[in-house]
Amino acid sequence: METDTADAAGKNGVIFDIQRFSLHDGPGIRTLVFMKGCPLRCLWCSNPESQSRNPQVLFYEEKCIGCGACYEVCPRRGSLLEDWPVPREDCTGCGCCVEVCFAGARELSGRVVSVREVLDVVLRDRTFYEQSEGGVTVGGGEPLLQYEFTAGLLRACRENGLHTAVETCGFAGKNALETVLQHTDLLLFDLKHMDTEVHKRYTGAGNERILENARFASKTVRKMVIRMPLIPGVNSDETNIEALAGFIKNELEGVERVDILPYHTMGASKITRLGGEYPLGDLEPLTQERIDRTTGILKSRGLKVTVGG
Fold first, then answer.
1. Quick check: helix, strand or coil at residue 188?
2. Per-residue pLDDT tens for 262-277?
3. Could you give the 3-state DSSP secondary structure of residue 33?
4. How far apart are CA 89 and CA 155, in angstroms?
5. Do 62 and 25 fall within a single domain?
6. Residue 1: inside a domain, yes or no?
7. What is the pTM of this model?
């Protein structure tokens, strides 16, 4: 039976997508809720539209027919003329251009929702969760950036008998983490680099808070999985892998496994659609040999490892 406490559970949140029938980011069939906003700026980010908490317009140049309808309705068209039709940083994301683009060349990423709205979508697939031991996963972006909404949503899901999971970069205040963990069955925790200066160079922030939160979370949450995006030339060297393995083995408690997430360029086209340039250029993905070497190091430390999450 569905409970009716969702309306009062947490504040409104800003999301950029809800993906149903996912087989990743947790056990069984899942619904993924993508929160908007992230404190990090990872150069390889596969969801660059998640970084800003504000709504943003994505422009699909291949669909544009140059009709000018978007320009005519834009309240800031004077400042956008030089780069029209590509969105600029001073675009407010009002969505006026999206509404009039009958060619489908513009898409608005980001909308305000209540816990009740999201829960209604999630509960449509209750039967599939029950049959597959699945549930709901909140990711992003960074769910802890909107921790009150995230906690409210997770609590509402739990009250309706659903398994809950959270994917986090770990860069958040302890209160935010602790609040969300109270309603989390599985924590998917990203670790990107063990050297804080290198971490800052590629993500925009050091890793001290992240490592401290990892230690705290490992003692608090029911189940924890460490996720490592494996980026060539950034964190794929054996020194960093050895340091990661040592940290997990010696300083974290009860980590279920390590998921290696090999580098891909899915974020490149999205950055272009936001009017930016992909910072890693034509960086090539890792070879299978390099991936196998990484998993071998982790397994030699007694860690369970999967590739792809």
1. strand
2. 999 888 999 999 988 9
3. strand
4. 36
5. no
6. no
7. 0.92
